[in-house]
Amino acid sequence: IKEQVLEHLSHCKSETNNITRAWEKLGVKPQNAMDSQALYFLKTEFCNNSYCLYCPIGNQVMRKT
Q: Is 30 exposed, middle or buried (CB count within 10 Å of its CB: 0-12, 13-18, 19+)?
């Protein structure tokens, strides 16, 4: 079942909301629903808890500034 859900998400359109727009401003554009769900997870688990240095994307963003 897990594989079927992942397959379905990879074929669904990406969500458009405040979280995905914020990621897009940082140069990370989700290609499908699986990507947007992953970005939501990163936001809630890493960004909201200020764990930027433990996040691969946050680490790259921090290095650019």
A: buried
pTM of structure: 0.78
Q: What angle do CA 30, 32, 34 make, to 5 degrees?
A: 95
Of the candidates 10, 64, 41, the residue with the CA atom closest to the CA atom of residue 2: 10
**DSSP letter (8 states) at residue 32:** S
> Contact 10/31 with Cβ under 8 angstroms?
no
Distance CA(32)–CA(60), nearest Å, equals: 22
What digits encode the pLDDT tens for the residues 31-53?
999 999 999 999 999 999 999 88
What does residue 58 show for φ and ψ, rounded to 5 degrees?
-60, -40
Residue type, 5: V
Amino acid at position 8, single letter: H
